[in-house]
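Morning!

This is the sequence you dropped in the shared folder:
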Amino acid sequence: MSARDAVTARDAVTARDAVTARDAVTRSYLDHASTTPPRPEALEALTKWMALPSADPGRVHEEGRIVRDAIEEAREQVADLVGVTPRQVIFTSGGTEAINAAVWGVTGGGGGGGAASGGPILCADVEHSAVRNSSARAGDVEVIPVSATARLDTTWLSERLASTTLPRPALVHCQWANHEVGTLQPVGEIVRLCRESGVPIHLDTAAATGHVPLHLSELGPDLTSISAHKLGGVPGAGALIIRRGYRIAPFVLGGDQERGRRGGLEAVPALVAFGAAAAALAADDQRSLRVEAARSQQHIAALTAAALSVDGVEVIGAPDAADRLPNVICLGVHGVEAEPVVIGLDRAGVAVHSGSACSSESIEPSPVLEAMGVDANHSLRVSVGWSTTEADVAAFAVAFADVVAGLRALRS
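The structure's back. Tokens below.
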């Protein structure tokens, strides 16, 4: 056997042993805020679709019309979930593309000194990196201050929008809910302020869609971004919702798909699954969504109680559950860093997330927690979803206490 073959064989054995060890431990997945497993309805729709002939939905033959019908059904299902008309829904490859399309569409791409209107983009540091980075590329950015709970300062925003001495903003960003600590933003007030001042407003609802009811037509934001894999679809699908009568330049060029608003052959399998997941949540006048949200809130309450029973643990973000997403809690753990806690929980079969740089692909700790004045290296985010069980909650309760106690014992 050559040296190369020996290395390959060794790596294969190592990988096999890792899989065997993983399977020997019952896993409890509590990182749904990063991505949630596809819902059974999404997988069923995906399986049915993959068994059918594929075709370009832009063609007039029967195969093309079948595909077109499937896309339009998915569009109606997504529109129904968020309370808009199907024509307002532009399908994208995900929430990140939808955000970039919103920024590009309003600013024309910017570059070299501000947005198309000559004014800055207003954006808080607690926004998702896709919002912050696409805005910085488009032009000048003014930071919206936030509270210690990650809530946007509406007084500051009101005064800034009313200013007659500063440049008129080109765009305002507001997340419906924070993706790391779950804080719900005053979206109604922020949309109202922007509409009254005539400044475009983009809402990032990736963390909130499927967890709290959205009635976008009643609210009236100009642009709204959604991600499919956050609510039980599959990766590769998202949507940009555009207010009726509002026009933006397309971000992706290359064809007349999506009524000329987004070029490129649609990712039909992912869109079909997206629609099925949305339909499952919207069923019975969104009763399914409300029931699931209530169950998530119960799980989070139990997880929080278990965590707070350990000395030196606190809730980061809004202390009142009514001011947070029902499926997310962020914890501060004193005395030990988050990375070894995440690793210890993982070894015990529990998957969670942390805002520390070591727990993600980033080389820097969470800017969200930094903006809140929180030490990201001691933070832990626990999030539940449609597939979470009481056994998952119990597994966390046991493992968390043991892991933290063990780490503190090592320090002492």
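Headline: The chain has two domains: 25-35+286-411, 41-281.

More detail when I'm at my desk.
O.
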